[in-house]
Amino acid sequence: MLGGLVHILRLGRAGFVFAREGVFGLVDLETMPRPARLGLRLARLIERRRSRTRSDKLTAALTRLGPTYVKLGQFLSTRPDVVGPAIASDLEALQDQVPPFDQADAERIVSETLGQPVSELFSSFGPAIAAASVAQVHKARTRDNGIERDVAVKVLRPGVADRFRADLSDYYFAARFAERFAPDSRRLRPIGIVDTLARSMAIELDMRLEAAAASEMADRTKGDPAFRVPEVDWNRTGKLVLTTEWIDGIRLGDRDALAKAGIDPEALGRTVIQSFLRHALRDGFFHADMHQGNLFADERGNLVAVDFGIMGRIGPKERRFLAEILLGFITKAYRRVAEVHFEAGYVPGHHSIDEFAQAIRAIGEPIHSRTADQISMAKLLSLLFEVTAIFEMTTRTELILLQKTMVVVEGVARSLDPKLDMWSTAEPVVREWISRNLGPVGRLQDVGEGALTLGKIVGDVPILLARAAMLSERVDELTRDGFVLSPQSLKGIGEAEARRNRWSTVALWLIAALLAANLLLG
């Protein structure tokens, strides 16, 4: 009970900060149940009376609450199905920039993590050049076998892991509470949302996992045209420290510097789109944070991606789904797009394919009446997900992350070339994947994989039969003399359930009391 009270107090403080900063004023009351509308109206009584934009209110509240809430905001920017398109758009602008922590602390963490003094690991170790709530980056120099090179050293912020663990436990408490007492919220899978955030943070809080993501992407993309990933220095990487090759590149947002270096921005824009689609379709593994701050152009005009804390993965079914719907819209094969949804199991089978194809046509036809540079693939996917909700398509977290990444990637590409034709740029990558995976070669590969799977199943039959026989014997032992619940057992179950109900009622009253106290103190 004490743990629950601590969660309630911390969440109550967060609610007070949101109310004071005016965040509740951004919520569309018409979409909320009546009790929630009343609570939000009461919370707005303590709102600060100042003129600020929507994103400023969100930024102020999340920054006051600390790094975990900033990360939660950035994560929810990828979930418009949860917070709504307007708030998701506001959260995209949320910047994670804080003052750097002390240089001596950074060097101590590096030394303790890597087991050697900084002076032995690096010939020079400069001050922080960028700082965020999770980590900061230093420029350093190494000397190995007489060869010197510049490196980027990312160091985890002291104490941040403990803060994240505490805040995540609050989120789990709130998610469990919502799923139990607000049945309508179960459609959005609150606990699943926190699970996804926790997995993402586990990677960001262990530099070895981020290094592994960078290394995996480097292996998968080593033959890609005009795209590369910084090399990881594994000898100088540990749980709290990540060292990679230093990139002397130009940020994609600096158009003047790109022109001065003789780099073609239009070609670079095409590389951004094609690289993302190639990674998503071919590998099922893509950089899910491809904003301009994480993308550089090197002296050869190659695209270089950094910061692999947020990565996306999609399976073969999702890759086929993406490729076929993109090609279907390009070729106006609306019924095929509808069939793909049903084949993937995303839309329940009791719906009509013809009616669904009609709804998809309503999205696709307006596209073909516009010029190529006016068509947004990301917007198309967003509209598609809105329509599929009518046909009971369940939330697909991996597809939403893909769609939101596409929004960012498309924005970066259009900033380089405002007239970029997304469809002609995407079509070669999509067609190549379809011909390779759904054409004759792909079908032969499927046959071969099917034969291997069948062979494995046949080989496992003796083991499965032995396990079945053992299970049958144990069930027979349990039921030989009867399997009975004693009156004492039944009484104990009843008393435990009654205790849970009593504590749930107490928790509800405590939350109500905290809200009333916040209103009075405000």
TrEMBL record:
<keyword id="KW-0997">Cell inner membrane</keyword>
<dbReference type="InterPro" id="IPR045308">
    <property type="entry name" value="UbiB_bact"/>
</dbReference>
<comment type="similarity">
    <text>Belongs to the protein kinase superfamily. ADCK protein kinase family.</text>
</comment>
<dbReference type="InterPro" id="IPR011009">
    <property type="entry name" value="Kinase-like_dom_sf"/>
</dbReference>
<dbReference type="GO" id="GO:0006744">
    <property type="term" value="P:ubiquinone biosynthetic process"/>
</dbReference>
<dbReference type="InterPro" id="IPR010232">
    <property type="entry name" value="UbiB"/>
</dbReference>
<dbReference type="Pfam" id="PF03109">
    <property type="entry name" value="ABC1"/>
</dbReference>
<protein>
    <submittedName>
        <fullName>2-polyprenylphenol 6-hydroxylase</fullName>
    </submittedName>
</protein>
<keyword id="KW-0418">Kinase</keyword>
<keyword id="KW-1003">Cell membrane</keyword>
<keyword id="KW-0831">Ubiquinone biosynthesis</keyword>
<keyword id="KW-0067">ATP-binding</keyword>
<dbReference type="InterPro" id="IPR004147">
    <property type="entry name" value="ABC1_dom"/>
</dbReference>
<keyword id="KW-0547">Nucleotide-binding</keyword>
<keyword id="KW-1133">Transmembrane helix</keyword>
<dbReference type="GO" id="GO:0005524">
    <property type="term" value="F:ATP binding"/>
</dbReference>
<keyword id="KW-0808">Transferase</keyword>
<keyword id="KW-0472">Membrane</keyword>
<keyword id="KW-0812">Transmembrane</keyword>
<comment type="pathway">
    <text>Cofactor biosynthesis; ubiquinone biosynthesis [regulation].</text>
</comment>
<dbReference type="GO" id="GO:0016301">
    <property type="term" value="F:kinase activity"/>
</dbReference>
<dbReference type="InterPro" id="IPR050154">
    <property type="entry name" value="UbiB_kinase"/>
</dbReference>
<feature type="domain" description="ABC1 atypical kinase-like">
    <location>
        <begin position="94"/>
        <end position="341"/>
    </location>
</feature>
